[in-house]
Specification:
Strand order of the largest sheet: 8-7-10-11-9-12-13
Order of helices and strands: EEEEEHEHHEEHEHEEHEE
Helix content: 25-40%
Strand content: 25-35%
Number of helices: 6
Distance between the termini: 37 Å
Oligomer: single chain
Largest sheet: 7 strands, antiparallel
Length: 275
């Protein structure tokens, strides 16, 4: 029996809604780490979840781990279960996470995760699950997305350091403290929609972007997007401390970009697709 055939027997809900005599009280140390998911709506409004799959006596159990700000501790709760009979761990993981995210989306209008940290579920598997729940997110090709994810995003001033998608940056976290901000954007106006554009046109667009940000009171620091494989030339960019996500997205769209890079309070750069 496939996970799809058991869809009507999947139970999901928020912490505390799933109970029973056979429901374990603690997350097993042998549970599979499926993935992490994060949302950063603003400096004061974010969410970070981690999902695990536990093999119970009769059911596959989906666990949620998160930090509770009120109690100041990590909470772990069961948020989904389905029968084990005829369903392997990978199929159960996909089915349960799909069901919970769909429930979360319809119940509280939660949007697509802004960043996912793959575990036993790969980036491709997570992207497929999110597309099922929220629809096809992007017209940008998978190869181009992969190229973005592998890019070195180099901040050139005042101190040089490199940002990488999904990797927490201690240098960025230190900069946050030094200048009193909790977010940052990495933007460029070069090569709209990844179409090669003349140096003169790129320079003019980049200057326009810098002027726009300066008029809005944002500092702009020189930066460069670099392909570590050397297959395409670096793109002149700017690093903008204090830039919120919505403004970063609107500027990226205005200047014809497929994506922007943004980091929230956790100092983990995220690739944010715009098309």
């Amino acid at each position: 029996m496939s996970a799809e055939h058991c869809a009507d027997r999947i139970e999901v809900g928020y912490p505390g809604s799933i109970s029973g005599s056979d429901v374990p009280k603690r997350l097993s140390a042998n549970a599979r780490n499926l993935c992490g998911a994060e949302w950063s709506w603003s400096p004061a409004h974010s969410r970070a979840d981690r999902y695990s799959l536990h093999s119970g006596r009769r059911d596959w159990l989906l666990w949620l781990s998160y930090y509770d700000d009120y109690f100041g501790r990590i909470e772990r709760n069961i948020i989904g279960r389905m029968p084990k009979i005829g369903v392997d761990a990978d199929a159960a993981a996909r089915a349960l996470l799909t069901a919970f995210w769909r429930f979360d989306h319809h119940k509280c209008e939660v949007d697509r995760p802004h960043y996912c940290d793959p575990g036993t579920l790969s980036s491709e598997a997570l992207r497929e699950i999110m597309d099922k729940v929220w629809g096809i997110k992007s017209v940008v090709s998978k190869d181009l997305i992969k190229a973005y994810e592998n890019t070195d995003f180099c901040v050139l001033e005042p101190n040089r350091f490199t940002l990488r998608i999904g990797k927490q940056s201690s240098e960025l976290a230190k900069l946050y403290v030094e200048i009193g901000v909790y977010s940052a954007g990495f933007l460029t106006a070069w090569n709209p929609y990844s179409a090669e554009t003349s140096v003169a046109d790129n320079a003019a667009a980049q200057l326009s972007l810098i002027r726009r940000l300066s008029l809005e009171g944002y500092p702009t620091l020189k930066a460069l997007g670099v392909d570590p494989a050397g297959e395409w030339p670096g793109e002149e960019s700017i690093f903008v401390p204090g830039l919120d996500l919505e403004r970063a997205k609107s500027l990226g769209a205005e200047f014809g970009q497929n994506a922007i890079v943004w980091a929230g309070p956790d100092a983990v750069p995220q690739l944010v697709l715009l098309r």
